[in-house]
Amino acid sequence: MSVFDVHAHVFPRITRAEGRLLSDADEPWLRDHGDGTGMMMCGAAEYRPVDEGLWEPARRLADMDASGVDVQAVSSTPLMFGYEADPSRAAAWCDLVNDRILRYCAADPARLLPLCQVPLQHTATACDVATRAAAAGHRGVHIGNHVGERNLDDGAIAEFLAHCAGLGLPVLVHPWDMMATDRMRGHMLPWLVGMPAETQLGILAMMLGGTFERLPETLRLCFCHGGGSFAFLLGRADNAWRNRDIVRADSPRPPSEYTDRFHVDSAVFDPRALRLLVDVMGVERVMLGTDYPFPLGEKDPGSAVRACAGLSDADRAAILGGNAERFFARAGAPADASGDVPGGAPAGRPPAGLSS
After folding, report:
1. Is the residue at 256 inside a domain?
2. Which in 110, 173, 235, 249 has the greatest CB count within 10 A?
3. What domain range includes position 290?
C-alpha cells in the first residue's frame, strides 16, 4: 500500500534580497538559524518560526521515512503567493520560487513531486508561468482560494483553470489571506475558523457561480483541509438551492451534484469527520493530506484514515495512495507488469482526469 501525501509545504532558501524581487516592503524570505530552526520573514518582521524540513530536503525525506510516507506533492507556503504585486514582478518571483522548488525536489524526484505557483492576479501571465513550469517538470499548480475580492467563480480565474486542464496540470487549492482577521484575534483563530470558511467559500462559489458548468471535466482540482466546512454544510446549501431562486440563479444543478468534479484532502483529524467526508465525496475523491511540516498538520500521517469506521482495506488503500497516484498521473504513463498504469487505471485507458 503506497502512502502519498498531497498537501505538504516548502519554503526554499530565499534571501531577503531575493524576496525584494517581489516587493520592496514586507518581502517574503527565509531566515535559517543554522541549528535546524528558522523563521519565515516579511521584510524585517518575524512571521512564523519553522523547522528545517520546510527548506532542507534531507530532513523531509527522513521525516517521510519515519512516518511511512512514500511520496509527497510539494507546494509553496501561501505566504509566498505574491498576488498583490505587479504582475511582471510576480511572474519573475514565481519563476524563482518554482526553480527553487524543482531544485528541492531533485533530491529525490521519485518521492518529491513539485507543484508550481503562479501570479494568479493576471490571467495571461499566470498561464505563461504555468506553461513554463510544466515544461520544466512541475507536476501541478498550487493556488490560493481567492485573489483579493475575486473568488474562484471569477471568469479570469476560471480561464486559468481551463488552461491548466489543457496542460494536464492538476490544481491544488489552499486557503489563505483569511477573512475577518480583525475579529479573530489570538488562539490561531484565523487558521481554526478562517481557513475552513475560506475553503467552503471557494467550493460554493464555483458550484453556485456555474463555474463547473463552464470548465472542462478533465480539470483535476483538489481542495485542502478536507474542503473546510463544506461537507458538513452541503445539506444547507442544497436546501437553499431548492428553496430560493437567488441561490440557484447561476447554477442549473444543486451543489451536491458537483462533488464528482473535485477532490479534497483528508486533513480533518477526526475519523468521524473523515467518515462524513467520504460519505459526501465518495471514497475515490478523498486523498491523504497532512499539511507537513506545520504544527497544525497531521503528525501521524494517515492515522485518521486507518481509524475511520466502515472503510474497507481497498478504501484505505485508495485514500492513502491510490487516488493521489491517479490524480497526479501523467498522460501516457507506462503500464507496470500487472498491465495497469501507476495508480490502478486499466492499461489502454488514461488515468482518471486525463484525456486520451
Report:
1. yes
2. 173
3. 4-12+53-327
Per-residue pLDDT, 352: 32
Q: What are the tens digits of pLDDT across the range 221-236?
A: 999 999 999 999 999 9
pLDDT digits (tens, 9 = 90+) for 279-336: 999 999 999 999 999 988 899 999 999 999 999 999 999 999 999 999 999 865 443 3
At residue 336, the pLDDT reads: 39
Question: Is-contact 137 102, C-beta < 8 A?
Answer: yes
What is the per-residue pLDDT for 79? 94
CATH of residue 321: 3.20.20.140
Residue 250 lies in a domain: yes
Q: Is 168 within the bounds of a domain?
A: yes
Q: Give pLDDT < 70 ranges for the chain.
A: 331-356
Count the domains in the chain: 1
